[in-house]
Amino acid sequence: MEKVTVLGAGLAGSECAWQLARRGIGVRLVEMKPGKMTPAHVSPYFGELVCSNSLRSDELTNAVGLLKAEMRKMGSLIMESADLNRVAAGGALAVDREGFARHITERLEACPLVEVVREEATAIPEGEVVVATGPLSSDAIADVIAGLCGDEGLHFYDAVAPIVTLESVDMDSAFFASRYDKGTADYVNCPMTQEEYLAFVAELAGAKEAEVHGFDDGGVFEGCMPVEVMARRGVDTLRYGPLKPVGLRDPRTGKESYAVVQLRRDNAEGTLYNMVGFQTHLTWGEQRRVFSMIPALKNAEFIRYGVMHRNTYLNSPRLLDRYYRLRSQPRISFAGQMTGVEGYVESSASGMLVGIETAARLLGLPPVDFPKETAIGALGLYISGGSVGDFQPMNINFGIIAPLDHKVRGKRNKNAEISRRSLEIIEKLTEGEAFRCADHL
């Protein structure tokens, strides 16, 4: 059996390659790093996290928590690495970036069924191909994709949050806590008075932005809205967004502050923290000047400033089927954020689905056909035709998962029941042929 070529070793490509190899399918994994890097990547490792280091909620009353639970049941490499490299983040699953990516890389490089090719992909090869080159695809492969898709590609812009050292944070002006005391006190909270907040927002709204070719505020995906764009939308926008103080009582006063900037641990040692929700494309000098107006960050050491980069995604409902295969050329599949799934976990899940379903087809087995009652299935069905109106990137949510056939009182109880149903379905699916053959590693 010929190898499947997977272009790109990000989260989706790595997960896809792993699922194929688990089922005895040879993989040629092509990755251009470190020979060629994107503006947002700094590491030679596979599965590098660019924006946040959080994989979001780990609770089954949250849709992304359900998606992670499904992936764990099905033998996900990404979830294996995340669980091994977890750092404290309350009810969320956050990871040590370097350890997380290193583990993924080492596992794939050591796999006898995976041939790693360190070179830039500039064409779609013959045979079975999975395109997982990501939202930061190089110009050469992006042009090829555009040609394949009849110029149906869309784009939006994404932003990366700054990281500071913990030792440079003024803890006399900050405190450790989790919102509503949920989980352990893993976040550094930087409170602001009304006067401090209003001065900060005024400077932020007028700060100088770095030049990004073709940038347009209207083209920014809402889930990654830069803080300066939010500041321009209204003086209270940030207070109802990433600077929301609700549920965070300052232990020194016993009261909620006017606004709170949260910092989340970014490495296992707890020496680095990222500014939660502070994606930005301000110039580095302006970031230093404006963010230092936050009292706890007045002397902060920024070890990485925020950057802005272009993300591209496909008009997937028109182009792809439920297996993420190109309708016009089914030998070619796509995986990851370029398909319109939004988020680390969702990108990984798309790669998992592609790997499982591609292997089943090549082995002559029936497709798994993950149903809409599961998070992984609902996501694939959404991007292949479940959207209404203009197609936009989508995080997993309970709104796209099939509802229950009976009423359950309370939203959390209803979500928990949906999750229970989904995991029972996944449990049964893993007893099928497509999973019984997944024992080659």
Quick rundown:
The chain is an alpha+beta fold and 441 residues long.
Which helices and strands, and how do they pair?
Elements: E1 4-7, H1 11-22, E2 27-31, E3 54-57, H2 63-73, H3 77-84, E4 86-87, E5 92-95, H4 97-109, E6 114-118, E7 129-131, H5 139-148, E8 154-159, E9 163-165, E10 175-177, E11 187-192, H6 194-206, H7 227-233, E12 249-250, E13 255-256, E14 259-265, E15 272-275, H8 284-291, E16 302-304, E17 308-313, H9 316-319, E18 325-326, E19 329-334, H10 344-362, H11 375-386, H12 411-429, H13 433-436
Parallel strand pairs: 1-2, 1-7, 2-6, 7-19
Antiparallel strand pairs: 3-5, 4-5, 8-17, 9-15, 9-16, 10-11, 11-14, 12-13, 14-15, 18-19
Helix pairs in contact: 1-10, 2-10, 2-12, 3-4, 6-7, 10-11
Output the keywords.
alpha+beta; 2 domains; six-stranded mixed sheet; Elongation Factor Tu (Ef-tu), domain 3; six-stranded antiparallel sheet; globular; 441 residues; 13 helices; FAD/NAD(P)-binding domain; single chain
How large is the share of residues in beta strands?
Answer: 15-25%
- The averaged pLDDT comes out at 90
Radius of gyration: 22 Å
| Category by helix and strand content | alpha+beta
- Extended strand count: 19
